[in-house]
Design brief:
This protein has 312 residues and is α/β, with parallel strands linked by helices. It has ten helices and 13 strands. Bound molecules: nicotinamide-adenine-dinucleotide.
């Protein structure tokens, strides 16, 4: 089985490639990445992953990489709300035109299974909790609109061209390989790096806002199972586990892991930040019965260990 991961040198992609490469039944893993935010270092020391350095807007390179693939996991994107606001055309090219090119290359490649990454940001201004997939999307940023386009294109290509497609909506994913200055959902690495450097933890607003934090290992496990069983669905699927953790609770978990109290510095709330986010999980559980997340405390511990390793 040959699996191609676009964005495979990025945070989620490199964690996924590591997992796929160690999974029985998967013979070849290709990380396809233009290294715009990802890096070769993310794949250093991983056996069994070939890096193809190319852009998803390059049809020839896509055709070459997708030849013989049984699944294409499409993660490549410019995953930054601020960048999408500052330069929406560049973000559109990577996030939407790039998705279209990937889907067209999938058609030319004999229709491998497709797994595409969307985002909880598509729920945007919709205040209903938990976020179930049938809610009306209400994107608040160009990035969120583009992720809605990504999943909509992927599912429409599934219907129109008989492709097996699965569109996941990721929630706040965290874990090793996510740098502290990562532009998206960066609160966990921002807190961990501040704590390890002895700085107060930067909290936007009261810290009572909640998120459905998802450890990247749990995401990689579900996606790997989807690859192995060629799981598809005609509607988007939340990939999170229905937890609702406030930033203050997250800080308490970090204090438990580090065994010491942490100072906080509260700043202004960020404009456009949603108050609460929590996934409704019945669709995920119907497709992946028995799937269990890595508990938050274990994920935070693994993240702290990774930061400590980086510091040498
Ligand atoms: N991290 C999260 O919490 C989160 C939440 C929701 C959705 N997502 C989605 O998950 C996916 C992966 O996100 P991530 O957090 O790993 O981000 P990331 O920036 O670490 O990974 C994206 C990867 O795509 C590559 N890339 C960008 N443009 C490309 C192009 N034109 N051609 C080829 N490669 C290109 C980058 O170099 C990078 O390696 C994205 O689609 C993102 O929208 C992430």
């Amino acid at each position: 089985m040959r699996v191609v991961v676009t964005g495979g040198a990025g945070f989620i992609g490199a964690n996924l490639c590591r997992r796929l490469a160690g999974t029985g039944g998967i013979d070849e893993v290709v990380a396809y990445d233009n290294l715009s935010t990802g890096s070769k270092d993310n794949l250093a020391g991983v056996d069994g992953v070939d890096l193809v350095e190319a852009d998803i807007c390059d049809p020839r390179a896509l055709d070459k990489a997708f030849r013989g693939a049984s699944t294409v996991v499409h993660l490549a994107a410019r995953p930054s709300v601020p960048k999408s606001i500052a330069d929406p055309v560049a973000s559109h090219v990577a996030n939407v035109t790039g998705t279209l090119e990937v889907l067209e290359a999938v058609r030319r490649a004999g229709r491998p299974h497709v797994i595409a990454a969307s985002s909880s940001s598509v729920y945007g201004a919709n205040p209903t909790l938990p976020k179930h997939e049938a809610l009306k999307p209400s994107p608040l940023s160009p990035y969120a609109a583009m992720k809605l386009a990504t999943e909509t294109y992927a599912l429409a290509w599934g219907h129109s061209y008989a492709l097996d497609v699965l569109a996941f909506r990721f929630f706040n994913v965290f874990g090793p390989l996510q740098p502290a200055d990562h532009a998206y959902a960066a609160v966990v690495p921002a807190f961990v790096s501040a704590a390890l450097e002895g700085r107060p933890l930067p909290v936007h607003g009261s810290g009572e806002q909640t998120r459905d934090f998802t450890y990247v290992g749990s995401v990689a496990a579900v996606v790997t199972e989807a690859v192995l069983r060629r799981v598809s669905a005609s509607e988007p699927v939340n990939l999170a586990f229905g937890s609702r953790t406030s930033l203050l609770e997250l800080i308490a978990v970090l204090e438990e892991v580090l065994g010491r109290p942490l100072e906080r510095q509260h700043g202004d709330a960020r404009p456009g930040d949603v108050c609460d986010s929590q996934a409704e999980v019945s669709r995920l559980h119907a497709l992946f019965p028995g799937v269990e997340p890595v508990p938050l405390v274990e994920g935070v511990r693994a993240t702290v260990d990774w930061f400590l390793d980086q510091q040498g």
